[in-house]
């Protein structure tokens, strides 16, 4: 478990009243999130909730032909294992680590007991579920209606928020899978953003060089989702930006 005097870096845990967090601490165990690890497969059993303190996890929907599309992203603003919050232990989507990091883990039974004992914990987790629903909703709307350059700018902002640095590992192949488009389209869209001086991409490394410009290039979907996080959970629990 994390040391008693250690500040938690997960937004949901940090949003809890101090006494509720201290009551929860003995149930939390620090774990690593290695790059490309599958935390649970699609239609798999969810055994624990993970509160990331760094890194990024993608939630992937798998189609009949094997194609995968990203439907959600989680960083230190949220949690992995949302079905357990609602008393289920199966996940429709796969959870895969896309940026390595760390998390605090709590088992299913311990989470259930903690939620039964704490109205504050129930409130925070339920409000996160609403905020995450807003993120998924805006992702669907964005993918259906907005230009690829706007969608790419939005996705890079989300990744930048969770990376904790202006430069991070990223490939066009990976982005194409996340956005559900072909790689040449991602290359063209990235070229437009790079020519505008908003990003720099070299050998699998992405750098955000003009954050305000990238925000201006993105559609409203990014800002709507951030506002919902702030409204439901407070600015301290919103995705780090």
Summarize the topology.
Layout: H1 11-14, H2 18-24, E1 29-33, E2 38-40, E3 44-45, E4 48-52, E5 56-62, E6 68-74, H3 82-85, E7 90-91, E8 94-99, E9 101-107, H4 108-117, H5 119-145, H6 148-163, E10 167-169, H7 172-179, H8 183-195, E11 199-202, E12 205-208, H9 211-217, H10 220-233
Antiparallel strand pairs: 1-9, 2-8, 3-7, 4-9, 5-6, 5-8, 10-12, 11-12
Helix pairs in contact: 4-5, 5-10, 6-8, 6-9, 7-8
Looking at how many chains there are and whether they match, the oligomeric state comes to single chain
Helical fraction equals 40-55%
User: What is the global morphology?
Assistant: globular
The CATH topology of the largest domain comes to Jelly Rolls
Q: What is the SS-derived class?
A: alpha+beta
Span between termini:
27 Å
Reading side by side through the largest sheet, how are the strands ordered? 2-8-5-6
Task: Describe the sheet with the most strands.
Answer: 4 strands, antiparallel
Stretches where pLDDT is under 50 for at least 5 consecutive residues are none
Radius of gyration: 18 Å
- Number of structural units classed as domains: 2
Going by CATH, the homologous superfamily of the largest domain would be: Jelly Rolls
| Name of the CATH first level of the largest domain | Mainly Beta
Mean pLDDT: 91
CATH architecture of the largest domain: Sandwich
Please indicate the percent range of residues in DSSP E strands (runs of 2 or more): 15-25%
The total beta strand count reads 12
H/I helix tally: 10
Characterize the structure shown.
This protein has 241 residues and is α+β, with helices and mostly antiparallel strands. The protein has 2 domains: 11-122, Jelly Rolls (Sandwich), CATH 2.60.120.10; 147-218, Arc Repressor Mutant, subunit A (Orthogonal Bundle), CATH 1.10.10. It has 10 helices and 12 strands. It has helices at residues 11-14, 18-24, 82-85, 108-117, 119-145, 148-163, 172-179, 183-195, 211-217, 220-233; strands at 29-33, 38-40, 44-45, 48-52, 56-62, 68-74, 90-91, 94-99, 101-107, 167-169, 199-202, 205-208. It has a 4-stranded antiparallel β-sheet. A hairpin with a 5-residue loop joins strand 5 and strand 6. Helix 5 (119-145) packs antiparallel against helix 10 (220-233). 39% of the residues are buried. Keywords: DNA-binding, Transcription, Transcription regulation. This is cAMP-binding proteins - catabolite gene activator and regulatory subunit of cAMP-dependent protein kinases. InterPro entries: cNMP-bd_dom, cNMP-bd_dom_sf, Env_Response_Regulators, HTH_CRP, RmlC-like_jellyroll, WH-like_DNA-bd_sf, WH_DNA-bd_sf. Pfam families: cNMP_binding, HTH_Crp_2.
């Amino acid at each position: 478990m994390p040391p008693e005097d250690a500040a938690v870096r997960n937004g949901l845990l940090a949003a809890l009243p101090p006494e509720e967090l201290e009551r929860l601490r003995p149930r939390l165990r620090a774990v690593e999130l290695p790059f490309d690890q599958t935390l649970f497969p699609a239609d798999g059993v969810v055994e624990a909730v993970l509160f990331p303190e760094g890194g990024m996890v993608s939630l992937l929907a798998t189609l009949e032909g094997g194609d995968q599309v990203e439907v959600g992203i989680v960083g230190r603003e949220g949690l992995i294992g949302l079905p357990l919050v609602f008393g289920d232990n199966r996940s429709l989507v796969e959870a895969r680590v896309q940026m390595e990091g760390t998390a605090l883990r709590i088992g299913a039974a311990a989470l259930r007991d903690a939620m039964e004992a704490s109205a504050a914990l129930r409130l925070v987790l339920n409000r996160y579920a609403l905020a995450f629903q807003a993120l998924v909703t805006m992702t669907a709307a964005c993918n259906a209606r907005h230009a690829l350059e706007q969608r790419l700018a939005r996705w890079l902002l989300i990744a930048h928020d969770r990376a904790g640095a202006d430069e991070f590992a990223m490939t066009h192949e990976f982005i194409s899978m996340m956005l559900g488009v072909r790689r040449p389209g991602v290359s063209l869209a990235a070229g437009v953003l790079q020519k505008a001086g908003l990003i720099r991409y070299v050998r699998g490394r992405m750098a955000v060089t003009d954050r305000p410009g990238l925000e201006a290039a993105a559609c409203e979907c990014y800002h709507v989702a951030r506002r919902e996080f702030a409204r439901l959970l407070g600015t301290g629990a919103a995705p780090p930006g």
